[in-house]
């Protein structure tokens, strides 16, 4: 294996202007860690789009190799859980933000951050899921812990044609829920119905200012959008229901009232994937291997090469990417 390898490198000049280039780096440029991994597949999440375009301050150390997710094979390990040849997945933990990330042929990380690749999954399938899909699973598990069963009534998924949304629609429908998919791309109706959505509603129904309480339309929700959309989802959640909130595609604000909480006993369940404890991650990946239909996963993902990462980063922040993107590093 050669000493240098290609990586996307984000640098910042004295005026704090960010530049992105494809560079040759070596293991000496990587950061501290006890496991070195050959990155075989990665992906482009919304957060990667923000990092590469510089539209939000995701990167907190320069220079940085962006990319918050990877799957690959262990090359070297000083960690008791991992040995050369093991197949592993990494999601989050500040990788691609404060620790050199996935958009390079090799990564060196803390072995505590890694999860074993489920036996039934390829590295490409793991990255078709990626942080977005693993977060969708965390949202589904949060709803389950709150007792949101299919018998309780429909569930709504916002940002449905995006990464988190597409995986959430597929999972919830496979688990027997009546899924209402909210999207700004009504042209994606067939796509969303093929993933398992029962009803499609326009994003416009949820994106304006919310009334304190609306008509009870769903027992639960997975929200990747935040802002007015989350406020509307809460106001239309039925008595005792719950909404798992994980995203901010519309905005980071939450212009809501307390009425759904104090008059309907609705719960807002916060979901974070980045610092989620290992046991929860392992459970999420076990459930993804068991509950996500591989045919649906194939239908919601497209594959690109390393050279297309930057263009895709721009497209995802503009809401032009459907479902999930796998980057095959081969
Ligand atoms: P995508 O870009 O793939 O999906 C976001 C979707 O949100 C879009 O496809 C679009 O869906 C919808 N959307 C975009 N802009 C707006 C808008 N202005 N108003 C309403 N809806 C909008 O991103 P991901 O699925 O990768 O991530 C979704 C969100 O979840 C992001 O905010 C991301 O940062 C967050 N996230 C959080 C995690 C956590 O740990 N909490 C982990 C992973 C993601 P449509 O076209 O169907 O309307």
From TrEMBL:
Domain Enoyl reductase (ER): residue ranges: 17-327
Pfam family, one: ADH_zinc_N
Gene3D superfamilies: Medium-chain alcohol dehydrogenases, catalytic domain, NAD(P)-binding Rossmann-like Domain
GO molecular function, one term: acryloyl-CoA reductase (NADPH) activity
Family matches, as SUPFAM superfamilies: GroES-like, NAD(P)-binding Rossmann-fold domains
Cited SMART domains: PKS_ER
CDD domains: MDR_yhdh
PANTHER family: ACRYLYL-COA REDUCTASE ACUI-RELATED, SHORT-CHAIN DEHYDROGENASE/REDUCTASE
NCBIfam families in the cross-refs: oxido_YhdH
Protein name as it appears in the record: Oxidoreductase
Native species: Nitratireductor mangrovi
């Amino acid at each position: 294996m050669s000493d240098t390898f290609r990586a996307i490198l984000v640098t910042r000049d004295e005026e704090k202007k960010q530049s992105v280039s494809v560079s040759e780096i070596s293991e000496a440029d990587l950061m501290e860690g006890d496991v070195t991994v050959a990155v075989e597949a990665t992906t482009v999440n919304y957060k990667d789009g923000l990092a590469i375009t510089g539209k939000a301050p995701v990167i907190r150390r320069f220079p940085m190799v962006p990319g918050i997710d990877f799957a690959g094979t262990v090359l070297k390990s000083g960690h008791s859980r991992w040995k050369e040849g093991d197949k592993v997945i990494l999601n989050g933990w500040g990788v691609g933000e404060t620790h050199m990330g996935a958009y390079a042929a090799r990564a060196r990380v803390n072995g505590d951050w890694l999860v074993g690749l489920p036996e039934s999954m390829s590295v490409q399938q793991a990255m078709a899921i990626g942080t977005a899909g693993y977060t969708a699973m965390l949202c589904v598990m949060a709803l389950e812990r709150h007792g949101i069963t299919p018998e309780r009534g429909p569930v709504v998924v916002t940002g449905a044609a995006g990464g988190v949304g597409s995986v959430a629609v597929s999972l919830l429908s496979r688990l027997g829920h009546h899924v209402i998919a909210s999207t700004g791309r009504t042209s994606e109706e067939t796509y969303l119905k093929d993933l398992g959505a029962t009803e499609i509603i326009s994003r416009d129904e949820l994106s304006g200012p919310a009334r304190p309480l609306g008509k009870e339309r769903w027992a639960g929700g997975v929200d990747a959008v935040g802002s007015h959309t989350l406020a509307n989802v809460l106001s239309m959640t039925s008595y005792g229901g719950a909404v798992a909130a994980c995203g901010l595609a519309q905005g980071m604000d939450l212009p809501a009232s307390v009425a759904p909480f104090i008059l309907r006993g609705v719960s807002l369940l916060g979901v974070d994937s980045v610092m989620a404890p290992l046991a929860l991650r392992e459970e999420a990946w076990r459930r993804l291997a068991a509950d996500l239909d591989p045919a649906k996963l194939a239908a919601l993902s497209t594959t690109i090469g390393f050279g297309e990462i930057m263009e895709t980063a721009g497209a995802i922040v503009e809401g032009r990417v459907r479902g999930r993107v796998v980057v095959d590093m081969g």
